[in-house]
Amino acid sequence: MDSSAAPVYDRIGATYTARRTADPRWEREIHSALGAAQTVINVGAGTGSYEPRDRNVLAVEPSGTMIGQRPPGSAPVVRAYAEDLPVGDDEFDAALAVLTVHHWSDHVRGLEELRRVSRRQVVLAFDAEVAASFWLCDYIPEIGAFDLGRAPSMHLLSHVLHTDDVRPLLVPSDMRDGVLAANWQRPHAYLDPAVRACASGLAQLDQSIVDTGIERLRRDLADGTWGRRYGHLRNLTTFDGGYRLVVAHRV
Ligand SMILES: C[S@@+](CC[C@H](N)C(=O)[O-])C[C@H]1O[C@@H](n2cnc3c(N)ncnc32)[C@H](O)[C@@H]1O
Questions:
Q1: Which residues pair with 249 in a beta bridge?
Q2: Nearest CA to ligand 1 atom 27
Q3: The pLDDT value given to residue 232
Q4: How many whole angstroms from 7 Cα to the centroid of ligand 1?
Q5: How much distance in Å is there from the Cα of 78 to the middle of ligand 1?
Q6: In what order do the strands lie in the sheet with 92-98?
Q7: Closest by alpha carbon to 202, among 143, 249, 150?
Q8: CB atoms within 10 A of CB 36
Q9: Which of 17, 27, 103, 180 should be mutated for ligand 1, with most atoms under 8 A from CB?
Q10: How many CB atoms lie within 10 A of CB 237?
């Protein structure tokens, strides 16, 4: 963790709430995984997506840009990093970390912090091996390489959290939260820079690389190549983009 550097989301998070709102189906799964927990620490809380409103929540978030977009009435928030949570041992029934672990500079230390402060841990992460097989990576292979370099493996997550409870969260065809694979069945969406800006795997890459891949996508959509290669996806209602809900209980 380099707390002297500006948090990445101060740079890429300015329009987060425009397209990154909780998907109700994922929200149900996440809240159900929290079980009976009444006190929850939401680490890497961002603008508050997926944060339960009916429990006692403390949000932890390093980026002032993200904190500034939390809606009025949101849970209290402290500006801190997962790797060094400013709370005592066992203070919470559950710790929640949604789509944030791949941003942490020290995955193991952050995950151990979740275990130190809570009896139950609910972590939404992604399996970078599965995510790299998403068709957009055929156009921009650098996304897959970038994600493989920054995301903890599922093995590491399970090992550090002492659990084998790993639940796939499939992406519905009308996904509301603009994660990278949200538009798996709406390929034209990726031609829109605003759609690309809200997925960190695209926003953090060299934009000339992204632009080159997007131009190829634009051509393939126009001449029917995309449809011939990936048109079979139109028959599906959900897609495995690699998202995984890891649920653990500390004994
Ligand atoms: C993709 S956003 C997810 C935000 C929110 N959990 C959600 O689901 O919308 C990732 C968040 O992790 C935060 N983050 C990055 N590094 C972190 C760290 N070391 N500790 C805690 N949060 C971090 C970012 O500032 C950002 O708000």
A1: 120
A2: 46
A3: 97
A4: 9
A5: 13
A6: 77-78, 56-60, 39-43, 92-98, 118-126, 243-249, 165-168
A7: 143
A8: 8
A9: 103
A10: 9
Confirm whether pTM is higher than 0.90.
yes
- Does 49 sit in the ligand 1 pocket, CB within 6 Å? yes
Q: Which positions ≥6 away from 196 have C-beta within 8 Å?
A: 190, 202, 203, 210, 214
Residue 83's H or E segment, with its range, is none
Tell me the pLDDT of the chain (251 aa) as tens digits: 544 467 898 888 888 888 899 999 999 999 999 999 999 999 999 999 999 999 999 999 999 999 999 999 999 999 999 999 999 999 999 999 999 999 999 999 999 999 999 999 999 999 999 999 999 999 999 999 999 999 999 999 999 999 999 999 999 999 999 999 999 999 999 999 999 999 999 999 999 999 999 999 999 999 999 999 999 999 999 999 999 999 999 87
Q: Is the CB of 20 under 6 A from ligand 1?
A: yes
Nearest ligand 1 atom to alpha carbon 42: 6
CB 220 within 8 A of CB 138: no
Q: Between 3.30.300.130, 3.40.50.150, 3.30.365.10, 3.40.710.10, what CATH number should domain 8-249 receive?
A: 3.40.50.150
Determine how many CB atoms are found less than 10 A away from the CB of residue 128: 22
